[in-house]
UniProtKB/TrEMBL annotation:
MF GO annotations: DNA binding
InterPro entries hit by this protein: cNMP-bd_dom, cNMP-bd_dom_sf, HTH_CRP, RmlC-like_jellyroll, WH_DNA-bd_sf
Identification of the protein by name: Cyclic nucleotide-binding domain-containing protein
Pfam families per UniProt: cNMP_binding, HTH_Crp_2
């Protein structure tokens, strides 16, 4: 973790990420700009959250550890957003860990000095409520997939979602197995099957989608919702 000295860059970030629509005006100048390295904890399961962090860019993994020592990756986050909002609102210790998966940029406030202020601010609370609603909406979509779709279908969806414009991606297989709740060996067997079927090809640790149409047919489809 490396704190970046306040500069004109912070002003640019406030504008670019519209942080004035999230934090009260008097808090903006107090934001710390922090660069987390891969493996750094932003939130640690079972510990009190001593900062109020807002993720800007990079990649994070949200991990929940069980008493038997096994870990489950609940989510890989690349979209900007507030972290630890449930713990902030409920005044509880962190239920999961948030770990930087690569260099990740965050702005944060010390919870000791700003928690009460933020919990009384309508703008911050409205933004937090929207974030929580979006996460709950996403959970309602994704949770059934773990029970009703095969690993192959889930893998096709993951590849399509995370590949670049050329259809290539470099997944972290151990993390993917944890996220799917399966063994590394099981995941490898499914990927081997997809390679043999001509859906994807592998060169080293790089995977390329060969048949986008078949992959799309195989991927998970969610019923569209209509905004009122």
């Amino acid at each position: 973790m490396k704190k970046i000295s306040p500069s004109t860059r912070l002003k640019e970030i406030i504008t670019d990420y519209q942080l004035d629509q999230i934090f009260p005006g008097d808090c903006l100048s107090q934001l710390d700009l922090v660069l987390y390295q891969a493996g750094d904890y932003i939130c640690r399961q079972g510990s009190e959250q001593d900062v109020i962090p807002y993720f800007l860019k990079g990649r994070l993994k949200i991990v929940h550890s069980l008493e038997n020592g096994s870990d489950t990756i609940l989510e890989i986050q690349e979209k900007p957003g507030l972290l630890g909002e449930i713990e902030l609102l409920l005044d509880r210790v962190c239920i999961s860990s948030v770990i930087a998966d690569q260099y990740s940029l965050v702005v944060q406030l010390p919870a000791l000095h700003f928690k009460k202020r933020l919990l009384l601010d309508p703008t911050f609370l409205r933004s937090t409520a929207k974030t929580l609603a979006e996460k709950l909406h996403q959970i309602n979509y994704l949770a059934p997939a773990n029970f009703h779709y095969s690993v192959k279908e889930r893998l096709a969806s993951h590849f399509l979602k995370h590949c670049d414009e050329n259809g290539t991606l470099k997944p972290k297989m151990n993390q993917l197995a944890l996220r799917f709740g399966i063994s590394y060996r099981h995941l490898s067997r499914v990927i081997k099957q997809m390679i043999e079927e001509g859906l994807v090809q592998r060169e080293g640790r790089i995977y390329t989608i060969l048949d986008a149409k078949r992959m799309n047919d195989l991927s998970i489809k969610h019923a569209e919702t209509v905004d009122r």
